[in-house]
Structures are given as structure tokens and as C-alpha cells.
Specification:
Structural class: alpha/beta
CATH superfamily of the largest domain: Methylmalonyl-CoA mutase
Shape: globular
Oligomer: single chain
Helix content: 40-55%
Strand content: 5-15%
Number of helices: 19
Order of helices and strands: EEHEHHEHEHHEEHHHEHEHEHHHHHHHH
Strand order of the largest sheet: 1-10-9-8-7
CATH class of the largest domain: Alpha Beta
């Protein structure tokens, strides 16, 4: 975005951004901002076995985390059991292996799900993992209505940015709608979707594209639910969003202010939404991601602190700060605690929570907010002119746009137009450049332990009951009239595995095949 050296009053349509807590929520969705309640402190965590990850969760909660954020391994994300040949070499590597209810019971052992908010980054198999979370609550006596947290459950950005899809677009949209409608009834305080611009941002797009693509995906989900006869004044209360915060400080702040205003306006204009809570743009963020570098990794502590400030000035409801070593490994306890302390220093020492939207009314911030809103709406219009998000994905059009943006960012970094301290500028000549500090040690026996536990579950469960539940799920998936979540919850209670449930759904729906554009 071309930024003028000075922004004056005559360059802003209105220097009055409105009142916090009132639509269109430019200044925030709560009238008292963080004075009423601080944002939720999370640290994205998960590796190896459920036992090891449970230990990390307990450590983080002891150190002051106020919510959990679950990282799952690639086999779980892609719908494979750990003993599937496709899982070889990936079990527990980038997250915890979670193949069945027995593992989920271990993962949350000793953690009161009725009093802690849990965010789960899962998409292709999100409905299954959500069903498993509900089943854990059932087993531990926690009322479903007490559950709080979020599943990501945003398959559209998986097709165009991240890649952990399973089923074709249309049945995936059905499954997401099923999850949202079921959650509205059974877990009314839980967010059944977190529409995520984060991963398209990390894939290479800028702030404007991140916001535009995210809201376009959000509108596609609203369209799907409205087509199912659902009332947006009700279900939109539990739609949430998720973003990365990178290093362009003021543009990141303006992105969130513009997002709140644009989302409220679009819901009101297109769907007639009038409920103030349904118009609220609620979001969580990650500070870090691809903005971090493996070169001179301790620089990342400063980067994350700056990004954390931008997230808070932008009004985030939940934040997780990446550890400085996440550019090259799973965080150690030391680096994870340092990342958490970054949030706590900001919250309790900086005074940043004293007043709502302290940058509101700044000519520059209001000008940026207006430009961000206009440009994001233009991006949405371009996707709709092509035929909508689903067609853009099925044709590979959106994937090609993101790839072009990623290439442009890479070229700008390589030629030095985009400065990255320690990576392409201000490099050290000494050994300090490659000083990575403490190394995370992955248990080489983790995969074997996970598979051994899975075999034990299959031997001890009631296999006839598991097969009955799986058959009922497959039959329900063969038509379009039944919500699949009750069937998935039953399968989880019967200790059916993620791979078994996905396999039955694949029998009816097939798999997504990525389009190739030359």
C-alpha cells in the first residue's frame, strides 16, 4: 500500500471512528476493551504422544496460560491413522497424534474442560476431532453446554493455502455446516469455526489479500448455512476468525479495524442481520509464523513482541505468540515460556489495556483503515465476479493468485527490497549467527508408542459396536438430509478411529484432487 509521508484531516472521510462496542465495531466489539477482560493467552502446542503433550499443557497452564491451543500431527489432520502407510515418518512430528477417544482422554487428563478454553487447529478432519472433544467431555462429566473454545474447521483456505484437505469441496462444505448447526444446539458457547486468513498470509499474500480472502470464505460459509435454512442472526454469533500478525505494524492494526467494520456491513446488507452480537467480528491471532527466521533466531523475540502489540492495538480476543525457535524446531519449554512471558509483560506492565482503541482518531490509522476496507472489498468482488470462492478453488484460480503473491514476496526478499534483519541484511560474520540455543529432542520411539496404543484400543474395544456406528455414519453420509455430527460422536464413543471414520466418508464422497493450472 502506498503510504503518504503525512496524512491530514482532509485525506480521511471521517476522523470519527465511532464508539467501541457499537456496530460497525471499528473501535472494537467491547465498550470497555481489555479493561473488562484481557485477551486469552495461548501457546500453540503439541508433539509426539498424548502423554508428552499433556505434560506441556500442564506446564503452560502452570506458567500462566489462560487457554489451550492444540497442534495435531499431519496424519491426524489428513485423516490417517498412525499405522497407515501414508503416516510413515510423520506421526507426532508437527503436532500430537490423536487417532481415537482413548488418546483424547490422555491428552486432556487432569484438565477441566468446563473451565478452560481450547483452540484446536484442525480442518479436514475437524468435525471428527470436535466430536472427539465432545465425547471427552461426556466421559469426564463436563456438560456440553459448558465447553468453550474453537475448532478451526475452515476447509476453503486449506484448498488454496495449506493442503490438509480430504474430501471434495461440496461435501466438505456440508460437513462444516453440520458442525456449526450441531454446535449451536449442543455446545452453544463453543466456536465451531475459525475462518482463517492466517494460512493464506503465511503462504505469501499481503494484509489486504489476507483480509479479502478470509471474508470471502466467511461469506461462502454464511451462504451455505442460509441455503440450509439456518438463521444468520443466530449462527453468526458463533462465527470467529483467525489471522497472522506480521511486521507491518500499522497496516496490521488497520486490517483488524477494517475487518470489523466490513464484516458487520456485509452481514447487514447481504443477509439482513440485525442482532448486534451476530454482527461482531471476533478473532484470534498468531504473532509470528513465516515472519520469523532461522537466521539469528533471538531476533524473533523482538518481532513477536512488536506483532503482539499490533494484535492488541487491533483488538484481538485471543493471542498466541510464536516461540523464537519455531522457525526451525518444536519449541522447548524455555522458548515457549519466553513467548508466553512476552504476552504477560505486555498485558501487565505496559499499560496497553488502560483505554480502548488508543490509536482511534489518528488521521493515519483512520486513513489506513479506510484504504484496507476498500481494497479488501475489491478482492472479495474479484472472487465473486469469477464465480465465487468454491469455483475459484475448484478451477485453481485462487491457488494461482496466492502463488503469484508468494513469488512476488520471495523476489522482493531475495533482491533486498523487503528487508529481513539477520537474513538478507545486517548479517553477522561470527558464530553467533548460527547460535540456536537449546535444541528440542524428539522422542524417536514416539511413533512406536502411538501405534502400540492404537493396537491395544482395537483389541479391547467392542468391535461390533464400532462397526455398527461406522456403518450408520456411512449410510447417513450417502444422503444429504441428516446431520452427521451425532453419528461421529457415537463413533468416537465406540472408539472408532479417525482413519476409520474418514474411510467410510471417502467411500461416499471420494477425495479432493488439486487442479493444475499451467
Amino acid at each position: 500500500m502506498d503510504v503518504p509521508p503525512v496524512v491530514t484531516a482532509d485525506m480521511v472521510n471521517s476522523a470519527d471512528p465511532g464508539v467501541p462496542g457499537q456496530a460497525p465495531y471499528t473501535r472494537g466489539i467491547f465498550k470497555d476493551g481489555y479493561r473488562g477482560r484481557l485477551w486469552t493467552f495461548r501457546q500453540y502446542s503439541g508433539f509426539g504422544t498424548a502423554e508428552g503433550t499433556n505434560e506441556r499443557y500442564r506446564f503452560l497452564l502452570e506458567k500462566g496460560s489462560t487457554g489451550l491451543s492444540v497442534a495435531l500431527d499431519l496424519p491426524t489432520q489428513c485423516g490417517y491413522d498412525p499405522d497407515d502407510p501414508m503416516s510413515a515418518g510423520e506421526v507426532g512430528k508437527v503436532g500430537v497424534s490423536l487417532s481415537n477417544l482413548a488418546e483424547a482422554e490422555i491428552l486432556f487428563d487432569g484438565i477441566d474442560l468446563g473451565s478452560i478454553s481450547t483452540s484446536i487447529t484442525i480442518n479436514g478432519s475437524a468435525a471428527i476431532v470436535y466430536a472427539m472433544y465432545v465425547a471427552v467431555a461426556d466421559k469426564t462429566g463436563v456438560p456440553r453446554a459448558a465447553l468453550t473454545g474453537t475448532i478451526q474447521n475452515d476447509i476453503l483456505k486449506e484448498y488454496c493455502a495449506r493442503g490438509t484437505w480430504i474430501f471434495p469441496v461440496r461435501p466438505s462444505m456440508r460437513l462444516i455446516a453440520d458442525t456449526i448447526l450441531y454446535s449451536n444446539e449442543h455446545t452453544p458457547r463453543f466456536n465451531p469455526i475459525s475462518i482463517a486468513g492466517a494460512h493464506v498470509r503465511d503462504a505469501g499474500v499481503d494484509e489486504v489479500e489476507e483480509l479479502g480472502y478470509t471474508l470471502a470464505n466467511g461469506l461462502a460459509y454464511v451462504d451455505e448455512l442460509v441455503a440450509r435454512g439456518a438463521d444468520p442472526n443466530r449462527f453468526a454469533r458463533r462465527l470467529s476468525f483467525f489471522f497472522y500478525v506480521h511486521m507491518n505494524f500499522f497496516e496490521e492494526i488497520a486490517k483488524f479495524r477494517a475487518g470489523r467494520r466490513l464484516w458487520a456491513r456485509l452481514l447487514k446488507e447481504r443477509y439482513g442481520v440485525t442482532d448486534p452480537k451476530a454482527l461482531m467480528f471476533r478473532f484470534g491471532v498468531v504473532c509470528g509464523g513465516s515472519s520469523l527466521t532461522a537466521a539469528q533466531p533471538y531476533n524473533n523475540i523482538a518481532r513477536v513482541a512488536i506483532e503482539n502489540m499490533a494484535a492488541v492495538f487491533g483488538g484481538a480476543q485471543s493471542v498466541f505468540t510464536c516461540a523464537h525457535d519455531e522457525a526451525y524446531q518444536i519449541p522447548t519449554e524455555f522458548s515457549a515460556e519466553t513467548a508466553l512471558r512476552t504476552q504477560q509483560i505486555l498485558a501487565y506492565e505496559s499499560g496497553i489495556d488502560k483505554t480502548v482503541d488508543p490509536l482511534g482518531g489518528s488521521y493515519y490509522v483512520e486513513w489506513l483503515t479506510e484504504k484496507m476496507e476498500q481494497k479488501a472489498e475489491q478482492v472479495i468482488g474479484e472472487l465473486e465476479q469469477y464465480g465465487g470462492v468454491e469455483k475459484c478453488i475448484e478451477d485453481g484460480y485462487l491457488q494461482a493468485r496466492i502463488a503469484a503473491s508468494a513469488r512476488e514476496r520471495k523476489v522482493r526478499t531475495d533482491n533486498g527490497d523487503r528487508v529481513v534483519v539477520g537474513e538478507n541484511a545486517f548479517r553477522s560474520n561470527g558464530d553467533g549467527e548460527n547460535e540456536f540455543g537449546e535444541v528440542f529432542r524428539f522422542d524417536p520411539a514416539a511413533s512406536g508408542k502411538v501405534i502400540e496404543k492404537l493396537e491395544r484400543v482395537r483389541q479391547t474395544r467392542d468391535n461390533a459396536e464400532a462397526d455398527r456406528c461406522l456403518s450408520a455414519l456411512e449410510k447417513a453420509a450417502s444422503g444429504n438430509s441428516k446431520n452427521l455430527l451425532p453419528y461421529l460422536v457415537e463413533c468416537c464413543h465406540a472408539y472408532a478411529t479417525v482413519g476409520e471414520m474418514v474411510g467410510r466418508l471417502k467411500n461416499q464422497w471420494g477425495e479432493f484432487r488439486e487442479p493444475v493450472r499451467l
